[in-house]
Amino acid sequence: MAEYQNFFNQVQVAGAPEMGLKEDVDTYERTPAGMFNILGWMGNAQIGPIYLGIAGTVSLVFGAAWFFTIGVWYWYQAGFDPFIFMRDLFFFSLEPPPAEYGLALAPLKQGGVWQIASLFMAISVIAW
């Protein structure tokens, strides 16, 4: 029987399970005879036509951390008020630390969040 397959299909091999040597004991009760497809959904590195390996996963995780860090900083600047957050979203900024800190870590409110977000973005871009 023909199946429709294209570039976006995911394939899982679903054959008869290998039960090993046959003994005189009844193995039906202790070994299931089927395929558990849910485990194939998790950990599947194929997202459509794009293979997402370890580096791609690292890139996505650190990119999401960068986005979340900036979002939390904007939320802090809005005073945790959703109306001010939406009104002033395009006016918020993530400022770098002043030159007096040099290459040292600055306090969070004086540019430290910018340094952390820059580290997350650099790791994300390098892993990409």
The class by helix and strand makeup works out as mainly alpha
Main sheet: which strands, in order across?
1-2
Strand content: under 5%
Low-pLDDT stretches are none
The CATH superfamily of the domain at 48-127 turns out to be Photosystem II protein D1-like
Biggest beta sheet summary? 2 strands, antiparallel
**What is the radius of gyration computed over CA atoms, rounded to a whole number of angstroms?**
25 Å
Explained architecture:
The chain has helices spanning 38-41, 54-77, 82-87, 112-127, and strands at residues 46-47, 50-51. By secondary structure, the protein is mainly α. The protein has a domain at 48-127: Photosynthetic Reaction Center, subunit M, domain 1 (Up-down Bundle). The chain has a two-stranded antiparallel ribbon. Strand 1 (46-47) and strand 2 form a beta hairpin. Helix 2 packs antiparallel against helix 4. The longest helix is centred in the middle third of the chain and has 24 residues, at 54-77. The chain is elongated and about 80 Å long. The mean pLDDT is 79.
